[in-house]
Amino acid sequence: MTPVARAEIVVDLAAIRHNVRTLRELTGVPSMTVVKADGYGHGMVEVARAARAAGSEWLGVTTIDEALALRASGDDGPLLCWLTVPGDDWAAAIDAGIDVTAYSVAELDEIAATGRSARVQLKVDTGLSRGGATLADWPAVVARAEQGERDGSWRITGIWSHFAASDDPDHPANDAQERVFHQALALAGGLTPEVRHLANSAAGILRPSSRLDLVRFGLASYGLDPAPGRTPDLGLVPAMTARATLAMTKRIHAGDGVSYGHTWIADTDTTVGLVPAGYGDGIPRHASNAAHVLVEGKQRAMRGRVCMDQFVVDLDGDSPAPGADVVIFGPGTHGEPTAQDWAEAAGTISYEIVTRIGGRFARRHVNA
């Protein structure tokens, strides 16, 4: 007999393929599926294969280590990484045919010091004030990039940036950043990159002017809404379901407190159920007393604080047997809460819900 998983993440790769195809058809330009952070918690290698099968021309990750892991898995297509620290193994990335990103002259000098001919993309900071060269530093970065192309140190394959507020289409930063990006491109007129890219999921969907040569789709590839309340219904399908096996049920009485600190006290007699997953597995403690799960076809409210290994839900007098299925979140097609519902309960974003969940959860990939 196959043992039942105490708690597991089920990832539908067919949903990811569907989402990637839908997004590519929407934009009409090549796409990059972003699979950083272990594929937003969905499994980096498996998601990468699904995205490639659906036609995604590029993959994107944050670190060189992530990029090398994809190469070790057999992926040999266009692949970009973008965040390094001094002393990172640039040579290993270059040898693996990975596009690396430079923010500064110092990083370009490190790449040149490998003695290898690299594929390099340049990132300009257009207003996020995070990674990338400021517009003031940009001419020096471009000049060093042109020098390196002349001496054979690299080929500049891309120029890119990242929006700060694309989930709010009316935010003035969007127009401002797009203007700065075009200024940066004009200043880099001596370079002939293969791709110029600015749009992430929200911008790719909501801001056609930003699509340029390539759109980087992260959250939307996983079927989640990058701009809740603003995104049109594209038929994207959430790919992740988090579920657990009900550990026990018990009857409690009016006046009984539940979980640490007794932050919830029963006002009537009821039954409660124990769900064997907690903040040690990525269940957000901030969702205490606010989130819901699905048990036997009904949404059940969380009661009391989330603990490291478990949390409690109110079964409203019902007594499902231990071993009953608990859907923590999923696509929402069967009445279960979604990752967005959990994000709102915890005062965060769905990105955090799907990327942080894990811990002792098993992960299983299906093609539903």
UniProtKB/TrEMBL annotation:
<feature type="active site" description="Proton acceptor; specific for D-alanine">
    <location>
        <position position="36"/>
    </location>
</feature>
<feature type="binding site">
    <location>
        <position position="130"/>
    </location>
    <ligand>
        <name>substrate</name>
    </ligand>
</feature>
<comment type="function">
    <text>Catalyzes the interconversion of L-alanine and D-alanine. May also act on other amino acids.</text>
</comment>
<keyword id="KW-0663">Pyridoxal phosphate</keyword>
<dbReference type="InterPro" id="IPR001608">
    <property type="entry name" value="Ala_racemase_N"/>
</dbReference>
<dbReference type="InterPro" id="IPR029066">
    <property type="entry name" value="PLP-binding_barrel"/>
</dbReference>
<dbReference type="InterPro" id="IPR020622">
    <property type="entry name" value="Ala_racemase_pyridoxalP-BS"/>
</dbReference>
<comment type="pathway">
    <text>Amino-acid biosynthesis; D-alanine biosynthesis; D-alanine from L-alanine: step 1/1.</text>
</comment>
<comment type="similarity">
    <text>Belongs to the alanine racemase family.</text>
</comment>
<feature type="domain" description="Alanine racemase C-terminal">
    <location>
        <begin position="239"/>
        <end position="366"/>
    </location>
</feature>
<dbReference type="InterPro" id="IPR000821">
    <property type="entry name" value="Ala_racemase"/>
</dbReference>
<keyword id="KW-0413">Isomerase</keyword>
<protein>
    <recommendedName>
        <fullName>Alanine racemase</fullName>
        <ecNumber>5.1.1.1</ecNumber>
    </recommendedName>
</protein>
<dbReference type="Pfam" id="PF00842">
    <property type="entry name" value="Ala_racemase_C"/>
</dbReference>
<dbReference type="Pfam" id="PF01168">
    <property type="entry name" value="Ala_racemase_N"/>
</dbReference>
<feature type="binding site">
    <location>
        <position position="308"/>
    </location>
    <ligand>
        <name>substrate</name>
    </ligand>
</feature>
<dbReference type="InterPro" id="IPR011079">
    <property type="entry name" value="Ala_racemase_C"/>
</dbReference>
<dbReference type="InterPro" id="IPR009006">
    <property type="entry name" value="Ala_racemase/Decarboxylase_C"/>
</dbReference>
<feature type="active site" description="Proton acceptor; specific for L-alanine">
    <location>
        <position position="260"/>
    </location>
</feature>
<feature type="modified residue" description="N6-(pyridoxal phosphate)lysine">
    <location>
        <position position="36"/>
    </location>
</feature>
